[in-house]
Each structure stands twice: as C-alpha cells, then as structure tokens.
Amino acid sequence: MTTAPTRRSLLTAALATGAAVALGGPAPASAGAARLRLPAPTGPLPIGTVALHLAGGRRDLMASIWYPPTPAATRFPVAPWMDAAAMHALLASADLDVAAAPPRTAGHEGAPVRPGRHPVVLFSHGAAGHRSEATIVVQELVSQGYIVVTVDHSDDSYSELPGGRLILPDDNASITPWDHARDIRYVLDRLEELAAGHNPDAGRRPLPAGLGAALDLGRVGMFGWSKGGTATALVMNTDHRVRAGLSLDGLMLSQPPPAALDRPFMLMTAVYTPGAEESGVGEFWPLLRGWRLQVHTEGAPHGGYCDHQWLIPQLTTILGRSDEELHDWIDDLDPRRAVRVQQAYPLAFFDLHLRDRRQRLLEGPSPAFPEVEFVAQL
C-alpha cells in the first residue's frame, strides 16, 4: 500500500481550495467553477444541529448534537463543516495563508426537535483532528433517526470556544486515547443532565426545545476513527452506559491497553489490521467476548472511513493533479464506494445493537459491497 501524505496536510489542502471555491471567492486558476461538496445522506429525515460548550471538567470542550428535527428545519440556516476561525488555524498549520470558510453540512442550526425519543451515538475523532471529520457517517445516522454527539478533544483538535477563543492541538500535551475516553464519559454525564431538563451549556445558551426529552440514554452507542476507535473500547471498558462500539481503523493501542469486553464491538479495518506493524488489533480481537465482527475494505487508506476519501478527489480535480497523485492519496478505494460503505455499515451495526433490527449486511459478505471482506466474526 502506498504511503499517503499526512492526514492534516491533505485535509488542509482540500478545505483551503474547496471552501474558497464554494463561497465564490478566489480559487486556483485551474479550478474553473468547481467546488467541493459533501454527499447527501440517504435517510428520510432532515437534520438539525446545535453546538454545546462544556466547562467544569478537566478542560473546556466543544461538542455538537445532531438530531432529527421537524420539517420546519429547512427554514433554519445550515451549519458549516467547521467554525471559520478553527478552519483558519488548520490552514495556517500547513502554511497555507488562505481566507476560507468551510463547506456546508446538511444540518440546520437550532431547528426544532422532532418529537419522540432517539438512540444516541457518540463520536471521537483522531489525533490532531476535529469533531467534523466523520460528518458523512454522522449525517447518515441522523437522517435515519439517531441523535449523534460529536466531541472536540481539546489540546488534540482544532476547536473554537464561544467568544472566539481557539483551542489547537498541543504537541506538548500528550493527549492519549484515555484522555479521549475521559472526555466522552464527561459528555455522557452532561447528556444525562440535559435529559433531566437542565442546560449543560457553560454559557446557558438556548438549546432547541425538546432536545433533552429526545435523548434515549438507555440506548447509547459510540464510534471513533483512528485514536477515537481506541477510545471507544476504553470508554466501554470503564462505562457500561455504552452498549455497542465501532472502531474505524483504530490502532487499539494505549497504556494501559484495552481490556476484555462482553458487549458488541465491530472493527472496520483499513491500514491497522491484526498483522500490521504498530497495530494492537491482533491483541485486542481475542478480548472481545460478546458479539464481534471485523470487516476489511479492500484498497482503503487510513482515511477511507472519513470525509477525507470524498473531499480529496475533488481537490485533485480542482488543482488539475494527476491520477498518480490521486492514487497516492486515496489508494484503490473509489470515493463513491467509500461513501456507500461509510453510510451502510455503521448504520447496520447500530440498528442491530441499539434497535434490535436484524441486519443481513452483518451476517456475511454482500454482493452489494464486493470490496468489504469479512475477516472474522462471532
């Protein structure tokens, strides 16, 4: 497999170009009228979202709650993929002095909440990442009736607090998967406050009416990408509120390492397979004592389960890059197929374990997904 450029440099370049074009601003000479977009979710429900500032723990955190809203959601503005100041900092980290705003999502900010109770899924990002990097998966789950809570892990993310204060990755902070796990447990505590009728936002900013009542905290799942995948296992080791966990190419390495689990866990691997160098997946697999499944997407790079696989090919078209350069970045996984995998398999996993709906997709190889190999299951 070809060694790809760093995740941060690729995504920075994609955002720098795509955001400028999307807003009709200056674009590279080769760009023409092209602009980057995220794929639409396939579910029947619209999407609402609201940001939450959480303080009082070990450090301030920003989170977003994504939820099914009423049909009136279309009257509300759509949310950006990242806050503008955090985006600028991300660009500056790669020495790109570009005035850019992020692509827009399908989430309508502050829209009224759809009546009813919905299972809750939490997301933990990778190292030096941000809570938006798996928006394709998040939006698909919400369009199918889930509430998803995404979390910026401060000192390991690009995040902006209310009032404009930036929190950036700190190379001296040594944020580990255990820190991610502690953040998620803290967020879960705040969600319980929200469900009890309180507003956990540090500034007591208004939240959409009915949001707390919509949280079904008896049906909680979690997924994470890379370091966030490892954190998912650690949360489940230490907090029984999370009933099912999904790792998107997580390394499964930490000190201390993940321990045995008797609840459902699924591994979607790309680079960090059981036999890969610097991978703890081989040691982690025997620790799964409940329902378990490992699938491997042939030709997927490490970022194949994130928005990167969809955004980067658009960037190469805008910049007029060669097919060889594109292959170096995304390997052999067609971006359109990557999106379908991202939309189908996490949804099937959570539908099975949080909604008790049989999923034939998880019972064996599917002709609809020839690139997805069933490596091991129980």
Automatic annotation (TrEMBL):
The keyword Transmembrane does not apply. Residues 1-31 form the signal peptide. SUPFAM superfamilies: alpha/beta-Hydrolases (SSF53474). The keyword Signal applies. PROSITE patterns: TAT. Pfam families: PAF-AH_p_II. GO terms for molecular function: 1-alkyl-2-acetylglycerophosphocholine esterase activity. Keywords: Hydrolase, Lipid degradation, Lipid metabolism, Signal. GO terms for biological process: lipid catabolic process. This is Esterase. It comes from Paractinoplanes ferrugineus.
